Amino acid sequence: MALHDRPIGERIEALLALSQEHAETFCSPSAWLARERYLAAHPTRILVMKCMDGRIHLPHVTQTPLGIITPFRNLGGIFHLGWPYLGEMLTDAVHEAIHQGNGVLLIISYHFSRGDRSRGCAGFACDADAALAHAYEIRQQAERIFGSDHSHVYPLVCGFETDTNALIVHGDSGSKLDMSDLGPGDEHDLERLVAGLCPDMPADIRRDLMPLLRGNLRHVESLRPTSRELDIEHREWVICIGRGFDFLHLPNTALIVGPYSPDLSEPVATAAEIIAANMKAGRIPDDGFLLLASTPYEAFGVDRARAELKSRFLSEFAAGVIRREHPELANRMISRTAIVHWPSRRLELLEHA
């Protein structure tokens, strides 16, 4: 039986087991060496602004080792780089990369469905043009902060078509490169195509974009002969709020709300609406859903204590929004609060106060 179809208790147990397995794998000598080797060959820091939609999992669709791509998630991929917490985190990540002598690839993503408009992005009422326009607004904000010459930070608008899992790279003057239009024979021509599409992209950043595009090309090709009816529809049964959800590398499982927006109530309410719709449509059992709050910490002592406090706040806040906006769904809510030791990716459940 697929995980989505199991009773809620079994689903939660499986998810927590996955987190433990992920931490063990992440800390293994082989995984550590794989990350170090990848970063030695491709040192560009990759940051992604993306939707909370559980169908969009870039490490999975680009065949990239976990821990390489740093995601920033919010409803619809809707961000404003003037948001205080988001702006600080983004600039800190850029400064860290620059101080190490590396450039930054800032992927600004949006998503849509070609097969059915209603499977598009809820944050933009399934309007792909509006989502794309917003992505370009974020790009302009990034240029104001990091420079319009793109010498050190390259803001790249990138679409994600959920029916095929294909990336769509947008260049200047409306030009684009749709990975679903390519085949295995085009893999060696990708760098030339991207150079023509984005002529101002620094060579080192373009070099480090190539593994993602090649991985996506192979991923899309592997899906062509398969039936994906269950994957392209929403089937999420978890609402995550906070950060530190690297272990959730199962597509279409969780809606992840990052703690960036000054008003978190809107993405939480929308996530609850999607869960309720999944239950109503029979895509997941109606016996419950999981609300999981998490905050990463680096060091013991004050940093860990603050992470605990933050996770408890996020959990209580999200639960309150769900009770207010979706009282019937709230009766099926199972809440768990956690912190994550970031160097080891180990998830630690907290006792309810």
UniProtKB/TrEMBL annotation:
Domain Carboxysome Shell Carbonic Anhydrase catalytic residues, every copy: 92-170
Pfam families assigned to the protein according to its UniProt record, in alphabetical order: CsoSCA_cat
InterPro entries membership: CsoSCA_cat
Listed name of the protein: Carboxysome Shell Carbonic Anhydrase catalytic domain-containing protein
Source organism (scientific name): Billgrantia kenyensis
Biological classification of the source: Bacteria, Pseudomonadati, Pseudomonadota, Gammaproteobacteria, Oceanospirillales
